[in-house]
Amino acid sequence: MKLAEALILRADCQKRVNQLQQRLMRNAQVQEGETPSEDPQTLLAEVDGAIAELTSLIQRINRTNSRTELESGAMLSDALAQRDTLLLQHRVYNTVVTTASTRQNRYGQSEIKIFSTVNVAELQGQLDRLSQQCRILDTSIQQANWNTELLD
Questions:
Q1: 3-state SS, one letter per residue, for the chain
Q2: Would you list the domain boundaries of the chain?
Q3: Which of 78, 97, 98, 87 is nearest to 131 (CA)?
Q4: Would you put residue 73 in left (φ > 0), alpha (ψ -120 to 50) or beta?
Q5: Distance, CA of 49 to CA of 113 (rounded, Å)
Q6: If you average pLDDT over residues 16-33, what whole number do you get?
Q7: Global model pTM greater than 0.85
Q8: One Pfam match, by short name (predicted)?
Q9: Distance (Å) of CA 120 to CA 91, 98, 103, 124, 127
Q10: Distance between CA 136 and CA 152 in Å, rounded?
Q11: For 1-15, what is the mean pLDDT?
C-alpha cells in the first residue's frame, strides 16, 4: 500500500471514530422503559476496533515519514514540519495584511483616523513568497506520498 493510500485510510478511520462517537452519544441515555436504537456495548466495541486500526495506521505512517527521503534530501517528516510552520506563518501574515489593509470610513473630521503600522505591500510580497514555498513543498510531499510504500 502506498503512503498516500494510508493517509486516506487514516482520515476515513478518524471520521468513523467521530461517527461512532455521535451514535454512542445518541444511545447513551434513554427514557425509562425505552431501549436504545443501537446497543452501546456493540458501538463501544466498534470504537475500540477503529481506534486500534487508527493507532496502527498512525504508527506505520510515522515510521514511513521518518525513513523517507525526498528528492531534495530532506526527510519527509522534516518536510511535513516545515510545511506546517509555513502554513502557520502564512496564516499569521495573511491576518496582518487583511487587518492592516481594511479601510476605516470616516464620516466626519471628529472621528479618529486609523493608520496602518506595517508596510502592506511588503507583507503581501512575503505572503506571496510563502504561498509559493508552500506549493513547491506540498508538491514534493504529495509526490513522495504516492511513490512511497507504507512500512510495517
A1: CEHHHHHHHHHHHHHHHHHHHHHHHHHCCCCCCCCCCCCHHHHHHHHHHHHHHHHHHHHHHHHHHHHCECCCCCEHHHHHHHHHHHHHHHHHHHHHHHHHHCCCCCCCCCCCCCCCCCCHHHHHHHHHHHHHHHHHHHHHHHHHHHHCECCC
A2: 1-67, 71-103+113-146
A3: 87
A4: left
A5: 60
A6: 95
A7: no
A8: DUF6847
A9: 15, 9, 12, 6, 10
A10: 29
A11: 97
CA–CA dist 106, 112 (Å, integer): 8
Rounded Cα distance, 35 and 23, in Å: 14
Q: How far apart (Å, rounded) are the C-alpha atoms in residues 74 and 36? A: 53
Instruction: Output the nine-digit C-alpha cell for 16.
Output: 468513523
Rounded to the nearest 5°, which phi and psi values hold at 69? -105, 135
Q: What is the pLDDT of residues 65-119, one digit of tens each?
A: 999 999 999 999 999 999 999 999 999 999 999 999 887 776 777 677 778 889 9
The whole-number pLDDT of residue 106 equals 67
User: Distance between CA 33 and CA 52 in Å, rounded?
Assistant: 35
